[in-house]
Amino acid sequence: MGGDPIPVPTPAYFQSPTRVFGFTFPTYRLVVVACALAVAIGLYLLLERTRIGAMIRAGVDDRQMARAVGIPVSGFFTAVFCLGAGIAGAGGVLGGPVLSAYPGLDADMLPLALIVVILGGVGSLLGAFVGSFIIGFIYTFGSALIPDLAYIILFLPMIAVIAFRPRGLFGRLNT
After folding, report:
1. In the prediction, which pLDDT does 67 show?
2. Helices marked H in the chain — which ranges?
3. Which residues of the chain have pLDDT under 70?
């Protein structure tokens, strides 16, 4: 086995390209984007439009007060952690055909995740969503257009955000 990449095959149904507005796109990547949008919308609806989401937000904002009114904060935090781990696992499975699996993939993806969180703002679902698209765009085009500087260019938006908006693009004040 060793350190060789393990290619993950793209499902046969998604191997042919798709034409949209005269442009040709890999079908599987469009499916991944659609899945990401569906998960993002689902998370938004869960957190912003349900009673459970309100209880989770209350636990994040003021844990002691949420406990005092009977919200099982520890149970919700455990459930949120499990949901996040499940989404991360699903993202890994969906990303397998795009990236392959190799030793050190985690070390390659961790800085990207850190940059997305810092750019978008800690605790902001919208910020993570917008930050991931910005970083994905920069990473893709930076690697294609300026491969020698792609990794450095990736950190420039993060540096600008830290300099001018230390809480991130969509970060909120903790009051």
Report:
1. 95
2. 27-49, 51-61, 63-68, 73-99, 105-120, 125-145, 150-164
3. 1-2, 172-175
Strand partners, 20: 23
- Report the phi/psi class of residue 168: left, alpha or beta, with left for phi > 0 and alpha for psi in -120 to 50: left
Please state the separation of Cα 90 from the chain's center in Å: 12
- Residues sharing a CB contact under 8 Å with residue 129, sequence separation 6 or more, in sequence order: 40, 120
Q: Burial code of 33-52, b = ≥16 C-beta within 10 A, e = fewer?
A: eeebeeeeeebeeebeeeee
Q: What is the pLDDT of residue 141?
A: 86
Residue-level pLDDT at 99: 83
Give Rg (Cα) of the chain. Answer: 19
Looking at the DSSP bridge assignments, the partners of residue 19 are: 24
Q: Which tokens belong to 39?
A: 């998960």
Q: Domain boundaries in the chain?
A: 1-101, 104-175
Q: What is the pLDDT of residue 69?
A: 95
